[in-house]
Amino acid sequence: MAEIYRGFTLNVKGDPSWADRENAFHKAIIDKLLDEYIPLSQKASANGVATLDGFIKIPVDQLPDSILGAISYKGVWNATTNTPILGNSGAGGVKGDYYIVSVTGSTSIDGITDWTITDWIVNNGIKWDKIDNTDIIISVNSKTGVVVINPDDLDDTLTTHKFVTQGQIDLFHTHSNKSELDLVTDGNHDVRTDNPHAVTKAQVGLTNVPDLDTTTAVNSAHTHANKRITFANTPYTILVTDRKLLINTDGGNVVANLPAGSTNEDHRIINVGNSNKIVTLNPNGSEKLFGENVGFVLYDGESLDIAFDSTEGWY
Length: 315
What we know:
It is a single chain. The chain has 315 residues and is of the alpha/beta class. The protein has 4 domains: 2-36, no CATH class; 69-131, no CATH class; 168-198, no CATH class; 216-314, Jelly Rolls, CATH 2.60.120. It is built from 4 helices and 15 strands. The protein has helices spanning 18-36, 65-68, 166-172, 216-221; strands at 2-5, 8-11, 72-78, 97-103, 120-123, 128-131, 227-230, 236-237, 244-248, 254-257, 266-271, 279-282, 296-298, 303-309, 313-314. Mean pLDDT is 81; it is low at 183-187 and 215-224.
C-alpha cells in the first residue's frame, strides 16, 4: 500500500514496521536523487548543462553566440524568391544570423529592396540589416591583393591616349623632309625665323597682345637720344620722342606726366637718383596705367618699360 512518510510516498505491504518504513524512505530518497542526478560528463558539454562560476554566473564561453552578438553563417539567400523565407522585424532568424545573397533581387526586407550578389543580410536582434559588398573592389586589372600596376600591364589598343616607346620617340625626330624645319644642318631648325608652320597668336594664347609695328617711321623713333631731367623740371610732361627718359631725383621727388597715348608708342623711364626720392608717373586724362587711372611710383634705381594700346592703355 502507499502512505506518506516524512514527506515521501512509500509503497509498503501490510502493516510495515518502523524498519520497513525507514528502508522504504531511504530507497525513495535514493530514487529521487537518481532521477535528478546530472553526470559530471554533461557539465559544460554539448547537449549537457551549463556550470556556474564563483559569482553564480554562467561563464561567457558557455553562452550562445546570439546572446554575445556574434554572427552565425546560415547559408545563401535568394533575393528574388525570398528563399529561405525571411521577413520584417528580423523574422526568420535570431540575432547574429546572416545569409549571403546568391541571386540579385528586390524582395523588401525591413525596408531594404536593393540586394545584389555577395551582399550580406544580417539579423541584429530587432530587424534585418544589409552589409553592402557590391562596391568592394574585387581586383584591379585582373590582379588581387596589394596591386602594383606597371605600364607593361596595361593595354592601350582601345584607348585614345597611347604609350610610346623610346624607338617611336627616336623615329618621331627622324624627319623625312628636313628642309621644312632646318636651314643649315640636321637638328638646327631652331635657326628658322620665318614661322614655317604659320603659328598664329591665338594658337599660343597671345590674342590680346598688339602686333609689333615694324614700319620705318616707328623704327626711326627709337633712334632718339636719351633724355635727362632733374627735380628742376618737375612736373615734366613726357614727349613722344622721349623713348628713354633718365630722371635724377637727388634734388627731390619728380612728377612725370605721360602724353596722350598713341598705338605702339613706348617709353623706358629710369629713376637714376640715389637719395631715396621717387618718380611719380601719371597717365594722361582718363587713360589707364596698368589697368587703372592712377599714378605709378619708381624708387631709386628702378626702371619701367611701358607701351600704349588703344584698348588696354599704358601697360
